[in-house]
Amino acid sequence: MNKETYQQFKIILDNVELEDINISKIAYKIEKMPESGDIAIGLGKKISEPEINQNKMFGYVSFSISIEQNKEKIMSFQVGYKLTFNILSLEILNKSFENAEAKKMFIEYQLPKFAWPFLREDFHTACTKVGMRPITLKMMK
Fold this sequence. Notes:
By secondary structure, the protein is an alpha+beta fold. The chain has helices at 3-14, 90-97, 100-129, and strands at residues 16-30, 40-53, 56-69, 72-87.
């Protein structure tokens, strides 16, 4: 990322305030209880282009997690989040979004980063609800 893109990315961050995060969908299913031993965790994510309506921005991030053991599916988990932001200056935000790389960085990196702590909690809770040992996902860097 060059200096100009970083400056525009920083301006985007300075012009939005996270107001709320809501679960738009959640589903999980256990196929079988894991045995003792190693498990593999697969993670997928889908991010939609944010919608801007007056001084609000709505971002949508979905995650899917699969747990496997010995190449056998143990559990699947899907969750979608709607992130609501207050826009401090729509004019400044729109100008910063003209920098395609800064906008892409915000959408592909920052939106999931906002939702990650909620994903960690929701996944941990889902594991407990299906009777598995709770799994805590690592922090996102």
